């Protein structure tokens, strides 16, 4: 099965955690969340290696991500969390599946960030499991990859909880927070989770 524009936009509903497409109307809530989490996210933020490179505006970012999604190259989701005490479903983070490849590879990479007040509550592992199951089950991909800085203990716990394999160090792999940074690569293939990653995670056997 190959990805088509007809499959975007798409929501992935995990009960209390829902992945939904990022929209222009999310600007104020998204920017507020980023602002209050600026110091929490700064050490892990992608940056421009070109000296005069400028970051896109919010509108440019959303347009670019959705254009890539419609062409089948990425899945730009917001992580939202249902709260029985609220009439709306607030944004708590962002998760993007990028570099979607078919042919002989059938693979993709996944990245995310989350509000610091929500860290450690199982939100990110659940979101990663939802996205991975969608890619394996709906899109027919075979491999999901996550690249993490060795110093990022919180993200390392996410892949450990979910049972992603450590495939080693990539030196100076991505430009992060103003410098080229090493990353450890973690991966999972569809054969390793025949019952689905979310089922394994919620069943308590995600970690190794």
Automatic annotation (TrEMBL):
Keywords: Acyltransferase, Transferase
EC number: 2.3.1.267
Assigned GO CC terms: cytoplasm
Domain N-acetyltransferase: 17-187
InterPro entries, alphabetized: Acyl_CoA_acyltransferase, GNAT_dom, N-acetyltransferase
GO molecular-function term, one example from the UniProt record: protein-N-terminal-alanine acetyltransferase activity
Family label: Belongs to the acetyltransferase family. RimJ subfamily.
Protein's UniProt name: Ribosomal-protein-alanine N-acetyltransferase
Lineage of origin: Bacteria, Bacillati, Actinomycetota, Actinomycetes, Micrococcales
């Amino acid at each position: 099965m190959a990805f088509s524009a007809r499959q975007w936009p798409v929501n992935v509903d995990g009960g209390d955690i829902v992945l939904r497409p990022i929209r222009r109307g999310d600007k104020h809530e998204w920017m507020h969340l980023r602002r209050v989490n600026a110091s929490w996210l700064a050490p892990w933020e992608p940056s421009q290696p070109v000296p005069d490179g400028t970051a896109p505006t919010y509108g440019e970012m959303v347009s670019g991500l959705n254009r890539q999604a419609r062409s089948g190259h990425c899945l730009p989701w917001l992580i939202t969390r249902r709260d029985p005490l609220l009439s709306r479903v607030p944004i708590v983070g962002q998760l993007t599946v990028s570099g979607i490849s078919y042919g002989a590879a059938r693979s993709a990479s996944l990245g995310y960030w989350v509000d610091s007040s929500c860290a450690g509550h199982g939100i990110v592992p659940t979101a990663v499991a939802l996205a991975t199951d969608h890619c394996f089950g709906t899109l027919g991909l075979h491999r999901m990859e996550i690249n993490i800085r060795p110093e990022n203990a919180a993200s390392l716990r996410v892949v450990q909880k979910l049972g992603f394999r450590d495939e080693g160090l990539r030196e100076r792999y991505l430009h992060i927070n103003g410098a080229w940074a090493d990353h450890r690569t973690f991966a999972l293939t569809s054969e390793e989770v025949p019952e689905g990653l979310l089922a394994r995670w919620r069943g308590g056997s995600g970690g190794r």
